[in-house]
Structures are given as structure tokens and as C-alpha cells.
From TrEMBL:
Pfam families: ECH_1. SUPFAM superfamilies: ClpP/crotonase. Keywords: Lyase. CDD domains: crotonase-like. Belongs to the enoyl-CoA hydratase/isomerase family. PANTHER family: ENOYL-COA HYDRATASE-RELATED, SD19268P. PROSITE patterns: ENOYL_COA_HYDRATASE (PS00166). This is Methylglutaconyl-CoA hydratase.
Amino acid sequence: MGALRVLMKRSLSTSKPYSSPTHPFLNFTTLHQYQTRRNLLLHPSPSDFVKLHKLSAPDSGIVEVSLDRPGAKNAIGKEMLRGLTHAFEFINKESYANVAMITSSVPGVFCAGADLKERRNMNQSEVKDFVNSLRSAFLYLEEIPIPTIAVIEGVALGGGLEMALACDIRICGENALMGLPETGLAIIPGAGGTQRLPRLVGNAIAKEIIYTGRKINGNKALSIGLVNYCVPAGDAYSKALAVAREINEKGPVAIRMAKRAISEGAETDMRSGLALEEDCYDEVLNTKDRLEGLAAFAEKRKPKYTGE
């Protein structure tokens, strides 16, 4: 746990972003939603299966990672893993990014998990390397200093759900189907599922889900605290965008420090957590945005934050 806290502190700091470990491998959306995004393609991805976009004004600051492998239900193979790793690293390095959304452009599917067809052709060592790389990629996603939102429409199984668990907020449609079915294949969730799910829903519920491999729908996921919102099928993106816009309006440094305080604090005792909170508060005290917030309040206007 101590090592994890050190790793998180290094990665969530605004002054020195975490560098990812060396990897051996490096939504359903309506036409209306695409029209309202006004997305601009960012740096080319090493994978055609992962698209990285930023939203233009008035949504500047919101970044979107879109999974696009329709022929395999967004199953994660070596190429998609390279694309995801690239996207996460790019977001971590870009100072203008205030919130990131993980979405799918494949109707009825968020992510079906690992590419089992590809895995059948791997030897034991290759499987181990791939799973270790996937686990590292999702840890990197979890430690990106800005808030992340998983937008789940349809299937999110195995590694797909593990990716969503690594996000700060999960929003699903009623048609969502989530689960960790690995025990049915005589393995266990290997990309963080055994650790993040219990922390989110409690040990007893997590054990039942993992032991049985049972799949749960969106409403059930909401009732156990697995997702933050469950909305009518097809509306998850709209809800996620609304939440992202709320976050995007706030002070960028404050949001990063809030994430750091919560994420690191959850892994330690109360006294240490309060000391961490003090350190994070000190970071926002010295910002121009704090003064802008006070001025905007006094002048009864909307603040204009710059992240400084």
C-alpha cells in the first residue's frame, strides 16, 4: 500500500506527471450527439481502434477517447492496447485537458473484454506480459490527474469493466450488461478487477460477482454503487457530457488537487489523509484562479479560470 501511495503521489502531482512503465505492447451515439460534440482529432493514434478527440468551444477542456473496433465488439488486443496506452499518456501530458470521457462508437457495446481469439495464439509468457501491460495501462488511467468518465452503453465485460472501474465516474444506459466472467474461463480478473470492484461495492458483493461470473444490468449496477448514473438506453453519452461540462467549469487546479486528495487519502489513515488535504489546499492557495473565484463571487459573475 505504501508503494502504491508513492506511485499515486508522483503521478497525480501537477508539477511532475507520472511516466508509464515500459510495456511489452504498447456507445452507442446518435447523429445528434456527434453534431453537438464538434470534435477535433488530436495526435494520431498508433491504433485505428482508438480515436482521441478534444471538444471545441464552449467545451474546450473536455477530451474523449473513443473505442472503435466494431468487428470484435471493442475487444482489447495488442493493437488496441497500444492505442489506449498512447491515448492515456497523451491526455496526461496535455495541460489543457480538464476532464476525459471514455466512450465507444460501436452501437450496443462499450468493451467486450480481452481479445480471446488473439490470446489463443499466445504462449503462457506472452499472456502474462499482455495481462501485466493491461493492468499497468489501467493503473495509468486511474492515476491520470484529471477526472475520467466511463460512458457505458451495452456490454462491458472482463477487461472492459476493469477499464471502467479505473475511471472516476461511471455512467451507463439501462441496456448495459456488466460483469467479470473470468472464473468461467478458469482464470481471474487480472487487470485490477479483484482490487477495484471490492473497494467500490464492498467485499461481499464483489466476491459474488467474481465467483459466479454473473452479469448485471444497469439498474442493478446503480443499486450496488457500481455506477453513478443509470439513464435510458442511448442517453449515457448526453448525461456524461453534462457531468463533464459541470466539472470543466470549475477551477482546473482545484479539480486536480481534489482528485489527488481523495485518491491518495483513501489509501491511508485519517491523520495522514488530513495532512495530504493540507498539502493539496496549499497548492490551490497560490493560484490566480483562487483570486478569480473570489472576484467573480463578489462581482456576481461567472469566473474565468485559466488553470494558473
